[in-house]
Amino acid sequence: MAIVTLTINDEHLSGNDSDSILEIARQHKIHIPTLCHLDGLSEVGACRLCLVEVEGSSKLVSACATKPVEGMVIRTTTERLQRHRRTIIELLASEGNHQCAVCVVNEHCELQNLAYEVGLQYVRVPYLYPRKELDASHKDFIIDRNRCILCTRCVRVCHEVEGAHVWDIAHRGIHCEIVTGLDDPWGASEACTACGKCVLVCPVGALIEKGTTVAEMEKKRDFLKYIVTARQKREWIDIHEEG
Amino acid sequence: MKPRVATVWLGGCSGCHMSFLDMDERLIELADKIELVYSPIADVKEFPQNVDVTLVEGAVTNVENEAFAHRIRQNSRCVISFGDCATTGNVTAMRNRFSTDEIMHRAYVELADGDPTIPSDFVTIAKLRDQARPLHEFIKVDVFLHGCPPTADEIWFTINELLQGRMPVLPNAYLRYG
Questions:
Q1: Does B38 touch chain A (CB under 8 A)?
Q2: Same structural domain for residues A73 and A87?
Q3: Least CB-CB distance to B178: which of A107, A120, A131?
Q4: ipTM field
Q5: Cβ-based interface (< 8 Å): residues of A facing B
Q6: Residue A129: closest CA among chain B residues belongs to which residue?
Q7: In a domain, A238, yes or no
Q8: Residue A179 and residue A170: Cα distance in Å, rounded?
């Protein structure tokens, strides 16, 4: 680990070269919008909302999955980036069926908040209104694929933190979907421990608790940092070894 | 001459119009400032010529809505998408996953009380389009009001800006889906 100096939005900063550009920006209270990123999970750079400009490169890079280099000059709020971010939200809105008015997480939704952040007055691309399926076979939870934005937080938390690997992505392109096991009903999954981590990390109303209604569900994601910190300190392993 | 204002109810639940009425005592002030030339709350049969501002609630869900949308655009200087259904399709568009045959069967056969008959003359009811879609996919829309329904304050702000000759730029505080 080494300290690097870099410039973000004309501000001279320093940070660890093992941290991502996103982490360094956040350490210095510089806001970069994110959606698939969640502290405690691996980075996939899937949503592209955290794209930033790096001087000397025509390519945009995702702040969550890019490490800093000494002397890097980064911009996070240019007109070009703002245009791209609005387009990303428009595409996400048009590719699903996100009727906020009848959604369980209405007013507590990360996609909704990002739509406000980018000032989304209306969607310029045609809505696709895809025919997606809902699975309510699990005893406690529901997956409504109409609202899924394929951020893969559920896939990652189940594999990396719970260790059950119930979720995966099936199919390709516009037909991509989150599936349980080998595309079995969720209720039939023997791997699922019903821990509910996937439900809590889901940024939208795709994974929800049964028995909640419109605007009722507020997801609490704090649990993840305790698990991750405990794991980094090897607390569980020590206890296990002592036992 | 007072500005000529119209409000139209396409494929929606009339909730946006209810919110319009929620302007309460401000409606009295508004009545002095505008001429309401067409609205579900005014008994006018034909959409008039030469309208200054038209608020359009609801998605374009049947062939009549679609023809009406074009007439609104032709006759109005400013067209406002009034609420989430007009802006995104919203709840009205939730039927898009079904075919129109499935929907008509559900409404007029499965849920019928008496004699189940699917209307076929399309005189009493308009023929459904394949999909319910937002207004701006059919005509140019000048201003978007959000929310299901938009708040009375948001409607009041928008109309007042227009009355003062400004194209409303809605503050982000009013940007709210659902």
A1: no
A2: no
A3: A107
A4: 0.92
A5: 93, 97, 99-103, 106-107, 112, 115-116, 119-123, 126-127, 129, 131, 215
A6: B96
A7: no
A8: 6
Residue B56 inside a domain? The answer is yes
CATH of the domain at A23: 3.10.20.740
Report if residue A48 sits inside a domain: yes
pLDDT, tens only, B91-104: 999 999 999 999 99
Of the residues A121, A124, A128, A134, the best mutation for testing chain B's interface (the one with the most B CB atoms within 10 Å of its CB) is A121
Beta carbons of A122 and B89 less than 8 Å apart: no
- The mean pLDDT of chain A is 93
The whole domain housing A157 covers: 83-232
Of A58, A77, A96, the domain-final residue: A77
Q: What is the CA radius of gyration of chain A?
A: 19
Residue B74 lies in a domain: yes
CB B30 within 8 A of CB B23: yes
Tokens linked to B120: 């076929």
Q: pTM of this prediction?
A: 0.92
